[in-house]
Amino acid sequence: MQLNRLVERIDASDANFSGSVFENVNLSGAIFRDVSLAGCSVENVNLQGVTIANANLGDVSISDCRLDGCKIDGVLVSDLFAAYYAAQQPTGNA
Questions:
Q1: Confidence check: pLDDT of 29 > 80
Q2: Which residues in 2-11 are b (16+ Cβ under 10 Å) and which e?
């Protein structure tokens, strides 16, 4: 099924969209509950302001992303990186 230039709301329950391709699609304000995105590729997306809760992020890889203001369990990712890199510095106590 192809949906081109469709400007309507879609309510999908108990649906299987495995193997689907979404390109140049606006999903602003969409709600995803009990959805499996296992094995998906997400590239060049705007996730600003998105809340992810009760998710399995095991084996997730994040690269080349802006993380300004991004928090994990209320902690800024920039603070987590700063603490990590500080811990990697030699202490000079040889």
A1: yes
A2: eeeeeeeeee
